[in-house]
Amino acid sequence: MQRVVFLGEELREAQARLEAAQSRAGELESEARELRRLVRERESAVAERRSEYEESVRAAYRGEGVGELVGILESLAGGESFLSGVRAVRVLGHRQSSMERYRESRVRLENTARQLEQKGEAYERAAGEERRQQRELLQKKRRLERAISRLGEDVARIDAELVRLRDEHRELLSRPGVSMGSSGGLAYELSVADKIVAEPVEELELIEYQRLYREAAEEYGFGEDWYILAAVGKVESNHGQNMGPSSAGALGPMQFLPSTWEAHGVDGNGDGWANIMDPEDAIPAAAAYLVLNGAPGDWYRALFAYNHADWYVMQVLAVAEAYRQRAGDEDVGPYT
């Protein structure tokens, strides 16, 4: 159970990392689109500047601009006005300006292309990280599914083992003395039953049984090991589903023999009666009896005193271990 919880946390973290990677990839893709737009604009500007420059070159080759320039220079040589010199400078400046604009456009285009290339590389890295996170998320999902499947198989196997043990030892369960304590026989137990309180009570929900197990274990000094007390209740009566009497005369949710109850019964709810049929009395009495016989220091001894059979001890411990594993509690146990 704890493994399933751990894998669930890993899955949530992997999902968060994947979403972050997807967000980063989206941002980089948006930036790359903007840079591609700038590249197109600057390619257009470069083409325009190049066209201007080439037109100037062609004009010079045809003699158009040069003729004008030569005429101006000849006028200067002949002593014409300063305005002619200004015209010459303007013609030369225009040619120089066209060349400079073309070079500037080329530089801007190259810079933008480099930025686009860098963004492209960053985008590829982010996309690669996103793919890696997706693979990791898928792997963790599969691991979680396998862990859940194994947990279900474990629970089913434990339930099947309980059924097998119950069937295998059905004969032992029917013998006098198999239930808790020492029995003087069915007739004797029935005679003792007339002397104790054995009044039916309203059936409790399973959650109430769990609360009583926890509270009784805490009261009698083994709160962390309440799983064992719950396992006794499961094996004895399936948490109040089979209140008896058994073939040996045992009664109630914890299947006390009347003779044992007469000596060890507890008024757990303080109503003035120690009722063998009442979970609020029987569960604290079971906890007290286990402590009396060695719990929590020696669980085997305590459980064997509860029911004199090795198989019974092993069955209770197996159920307790299943409960502990389902709760993911690593602070106690294992009980097997």
From TrEMBL:
Any GO BP: peptidoglycan catabolic process
Instruction: State the UniProt keywords alphabetically.
Output: Coiled coil
- What are the residue boundaries of the Transglycosylase SLT domain, all occurrences included? 245-293
Sections of the chain in a coiled coil? 4-48, 99-175
Molecular function terms in GO for this entry? peptidoglycan lytic transglycosylase activity
One Pfam family of this chain: SLT_2
State the superkingdom.
Answer: Bacteria
Q: Which InterPro entries match?
A: Lysozyme-like_dom_sf, MltB-like, SLT_2
Can you name this protein? Transglycosylase SLT domain-containing protein
Q: Which organism is it from?
A: Rubrobacter taiwanensis
